[in-house]
Specification:
Blueprint: E1 5-9, H1 13-23, E2 28-32, H2 43-46, E3 50-51, H3 62-78, E4 88-89, E5 93-96, H4 102-114, E6 122-125, H5 126-132, E7 142-146, E8 150-152, H6 154-167, E9 171-173, E10 180-182, E11 185-188, E12 191-194, E13 197-200, E14 214-224, E15 234-236, E16 243-248, E17 252-256, H7 270-283, E18 291-302, E19 309-313, E20 316-320, H8 326-343, E21 354-356
Parallel strand pairs: 1-2, 1-13, 2-9, 5-15, 13-20, 19-21
Antiparallel strand pairs: 3-8, 4-8, 5-7, 6-7, 10-11, 11-12, 14-17, 14-18, 15-16, 16-17, 19-20
Helix pairs in contact: 1-6, 1-8, 3-8
Bound molecules: flavin-adenine dinucleotide (FAD).
Length: 366
């Protein structure tokens, strides 16, 4: 197979997975990121890293569950091969609801069955709930358990991807803004540089070129306490958006996330903070004494159908619209692009993601 020179623009989860998959196919990767190597400025830094293909069916279409289940297996295979350790668990997701929100849980169960994934969900009554999460004993009469789901910690995954790329010879350019990108070339500080392929993974910054891309604001809080011992992500049904609590190393718990039609990056509001913290407290009163270690706001890059998209303009590919599913789906998009560049084929399972846009007109200011 021919080895290509490939420029990847953007070191979010989309760009980093694209870069890794292509590097492992033997291509030469140059990564360009306008932010610093700490990678604490972008949407991917804030994402919760839930790998919950079936729970997502409360909002998403069936394809997301099919792709997400396949992608979760890719993460399981890839993370042990990375240059740094990555925190990833596959202990399932437990969904619970207070009495007034029970209809939402029932709806999710029906939706999952209707989509053909009924075998992956299990209703649990009090005793089984206690066995799974002893500290929730007596708080909920029943729960819905999705055993094959998992979570991955972006705070260990992103540095591990960067380090793996570096150790395997990728050229990493942080603090480097690409001014213009077009099929086969990018412009940096006024100078044009040629590549065999250019991958635009700029998230929301690509809005000028993808006019139907919009931001969906999410607020998320990290707590720390030694008093709570949850074993797996817990989702609580909520009338406006799915709320979840994800246990992480160092006694941290990620509590997220709001979902608001806005691209404002202003700090979290009182209302959202109250909702998130009330949910945590209602789940487990010991959260009352937890420390708030982080509060973050970011905007998810979303397309109208809430599905990701790969747009081809000759040798420029735009990979975007990961919305709520950057961690869940990025390995599958990376696999699709690697198959296309390496073997000129579009895998049937992800054919729906592609959009060709005719001749090489995909330029415009980056
Ligand atoms: C609160 C919240 C919770 C979430 N939870 C989950 C979850 O549990 N599971 C899940 O799967 N997903 C989750 N997501 C979604 C996920 O985080 C996003 O889908 C994902 O981060 C999008 O990644 P991206 O790489 O496309 O964009 P980004 O992370 O925004 O990366 C784009 C990068 O491109 C760089 N860039 C832009 N322009 C240029 C330029 N001209 N030159 C060089 N670099 C440039 C930017 O600096 C940035 O680093 C969540 C999102 C939010 C906000």
């Amino acid at each position: 197979m021919r080895s290509y020179q490939i420029a990847v623009i953007g070191a979010g989860i989309t760009g980093l997975t694209q870069a890794l998959w292509l590097q492992r196919q033997g291509h030469q990767i140059s990564l360009f990121e306008r932010g610093g190597e700490r990678l604490d400025h972008h949407c991917s830094h804030v994402g919760a890293g839930m790998l919950a293909p079936y729970c997502e069916l409360s909002e998403a279409e069936d394809a997301v569950a099919h792709w997400g289940a396949a992608a979760l297996k890719r993460w399981q295979a890839v993370t042990p091969t990375l240059a740094l350790p990555v925190h990833m668990t596959c202990e399932g997701t437990l969904v619970v609801a207070h009495h007034r929100d029970r209809a939402g849980m029932q709806h999710l169960a029906e939706r999952v069955t209707h989509a053909g994934f009924g075998a992956h969900r299990q209703w649990l009554q009090r005793d089984a709930l206690r066995e799974l999460e002893p500290e929730l004993e007596g708080r909920f009469a029943e729960g819905l358990y999705f055993a094959p789901e998992g979570e991955i910690d972006p705070r260990s995954l992103l540095p591990a991807l960067v380090e793996t790329l570096r150790q395997n010879g990728a050229q990493l350019n942080f603090m480097t803004e690409v001014e213009h990108l077009a099929p086969g070339e990018i412009t940096l500080r006024g100078e044009r540089h040629a590549f065999d392929w250019v991958l635009d993974c700029r998230g929301l910054a690509a809005r000028e070129q993808m006019s139907d891309l919009r931001g969906v604001r999410g607020e998320i809080i990290t707590l720390r306490t030694r008093e709570v011992h949850l074993r797996r992500p817990i989702r609580m049904m909520h009338p406006r958006y799915p709320l979840y609590i994800v246990p992480r190393p160092d006694h941290r718990f990620v509590v997220g996330a709001t979902s608001l039609e806005s691209d404002s990056l202003r700090p979290a509001t009182v209302r959202s903070t109250l909702e998130l913290l009330s949910a945590a407290y209602a789940l487990h009163p010991a959260f009352a004494e937890a420390e708030i270690v982080e509060m973050n706001t970011q905007c998810r890059p979303a397309l109208p159908d809430h599905l990701p998209r790969i747009v081809q303009h000759d040798t420029l590919l735009r990979i975007n619209g990961l919305y709520r599913h950057g961690y869940l789906l990025s390995p599958l998009l990376a696999e699709a692009v690697a198959a296309f560049i390496g073997e000129q084929r579009r895998p049937a399972a992800t054919a729906k993601l592609w959009q060709s846009s005719g001749p090489a007109t995909g330029g415009g200011r980056a």
